Amino acid sequence: MSQQQKQDDIHWLTGQFYNDSKESKYRSSIETRVRFESRLALILVSVVFAMFGITDYNLLGLTREYYLLLTMRIAVVSLCLLLAVVIGRSGSYSRKAWLHALPLWILATGIILIIPLRPESLLTQITAVVVAIMAFYLLIPNLLTVAALASLYLSVGFLAAAVIYAGISPTDALRLALLLVMANIVGYCALLRLESLQRKQFALLHEERDQNRDLLKEIKHRKSLEAQLRMVAERDALTGVDSRSHFMKRAEALLQRAQLEKTPFCLFMIDVDHFKRINDTWGHTRGDLILTKIAEVCEQSLRPTDVIGRFGGEEFVVGLPHTSPSDAQAVAERLKKNVEALPFTDELSELRLSVTIGIGIAHIEDVDLDSLITRADEMLYVGKREGRNRVVMFREEEDDTSVGEWRNGSDGYSR
Ligand SMILES: Nc1nc2c(ncn2[C@@H]2O[C@H](COP(=O)(O)OP(=O)(O)OP(=O)(O)O)[C@@H](O)[C@H]2O)c(=O)[nH]1
């Protein structure tokens, strides 16, 4: 049996949860409803009990017994109404079961006291007692144990009063006892069933709530995992710029849009010069730091609409939508200068950093991203061959040969 099932087990005799904390949770959950229903039921019962004063008058007239009965009825009704107010304000099954029991014991005492004052009305009172027992179990909200004890007190007290004051024969006393036992059994079983069913419903509701909470937790966890996975797939772990595959996806979309809208699109291939030497001189850890700084500078030198990715090793790639060749040239020059100006301290203060940038420009519709990258890469290669630390641009519309025109950003060199 699971832990949850054990917690939800219900006592076969009291109809309450075996588990104390579950039971107190259940009682707290019904507290407001119990207060309201108890108040209403007590008002109703008080009105009915008071109305029997009319039959007292019819039977007794204005006799001493009548006044005694009237006083008793007024006392019982006043106490019940007072308790209805108190229970309505601060009644609680969990902490003040005695407060809920009190009206039942007062009513029971009132009903028992009728017999010594009106013994001849025993037959009518038997019906009233059976109705009262049912009301104790089913009308006035109470714990089964509380209702059972009060009903038992009423039954025994009434039987004793009937024997002592109404002088019924032993056979009639036995009949009456059987009737009262029957009424108690029926009331007890009905309330036991009701109590168990309500608690089972409560347990089911809570189980469902717990499952929903676990499900929500699981969804949150999965979403965070998904976000982490996406991050790993989309971001370069060292520099934080786009991974190569993610860059390709974004740049592809931007290029297609540019072709659709017939706007210019440029692409940079940026390569750190002599990076092997940097690694060899300052070590790979500092090499990594330098790559991170370069990525940061690149991002700062670009517009938010540009996309930047790490293409591999010490090579970065940038896609610039809505950028004319002259603007691209200016951006690349600025970026190159910003890298050169990167401030390094301590051991790295000797470091002279530079990058070579190859630019590919797409003006015509059928150029695809791979060809654009190849052309930018070719320009990068030209730049490296020509001495590094420069910007070299490829112009598509002037591409009559396989290489096309290229220019050195520093001296305006063209082929
Ligand atoms: N620290 C570090 N080094 C890397 C990383 N990825 C690649 N490299 C190194 O970058 C260096 C690239 O060297 P090369 O391709 O010979 O180029 P280079 O030395 O920059 O020379 P040029 O590009 O011709 O100017 C290699 O030594 C790689 O080991 C990285 O993530 N971190």
The coarse overall form would be: rod-shaped
Q: How much β-strand is present in the residues?
A: 5-15%
Overall tally of domains: 2
Small-molecule binders: guanosine-5'-triphosphate
Number of DSSP E strands = 6
Structural class: alpha+beta
Protein name: diguanylate cyclase
InterPro entries: Diguanylate_Cyclase, GGDEF_dom, Nucleotide_cyclase, Rev_trsase/Diguanyl_cyclase
Domain GGDEF: 263-396
Transmembrane segments: 40-60, 66-86, 98-116, 122-140, 147-168, 174-194
Q: What's the structural blueprint in terms of helices and strands?
A:
Blueprint: H1 3-7, H2 20-60, H3 64-90, H4 97-117, H5 122-139, H6 144-165, H7 170-234, H8 244-261, E1 265-272, H9 275-301, E2 307-312, E3 315-321, H10 325-340, E4 355-362, H11 369-385, E5 391-395, E6 405-408
Parallel strand pairs: 4-5
Antiparallel strand pairs: 1-3, 1-4, 2-3, 5-6
The structure holds guanosine-5'-triphosphate (GTP).
The site of guanosine-5'-triphosphate (GTP) has 17 residues, from strand 1 and helix 9.
Transmembrane segments: 40-60, 66-86, 98-116, 122-140, 147-168, 174-194
Pfam families: GGDEF
GO cellular component, one term: plasma membrane
Report on the architecture of this protein.
GO terms for molecular function: diguanylate cyclase activity. InterPro entries: Diguanylate_Cyclase (IPR050469), GGDEF_dom (IPR000160), Nucleotide_cyclase (IPR029787), Rev_trsase/Diguanyl_cyclase (IPR043128). It comes from Idiomarina ramblicola. Residues 263-396 form the GGDEF domain. This is diguanylate cyclase. By secondary structure, the protein is α+β, with helices and mostly antiparallel strands. The chain has two domains: 3-212, no CATH class; 244-408, Reverse transcriptase/Diguanylate cyclase domain (Alpha-Beta Plaits), CATH 3.30.70.270. It is built from eleven helices and six strands. It has helices at 3-7, 20-60, 64-90, 97-117, 122-139, 144-165, 170-234, 244-261, 275-301, 325-340, 369-385, and strands at residues 265-272, 307-312, 315-321, 355-362, 391-395, 405-408. It has a six-stranded mixed β-sheet. It starts with a helix and ends in a 7-residue tail after the last strand. 31% of the residues are buried. Bound molecules: guanosine-5'-triphosphate (GTP). Residues 238, 271-277, 279, 284, 287-288, 291, 313-314, 384, 388 line the site of guanosine-5'-triphosphate (GTP).
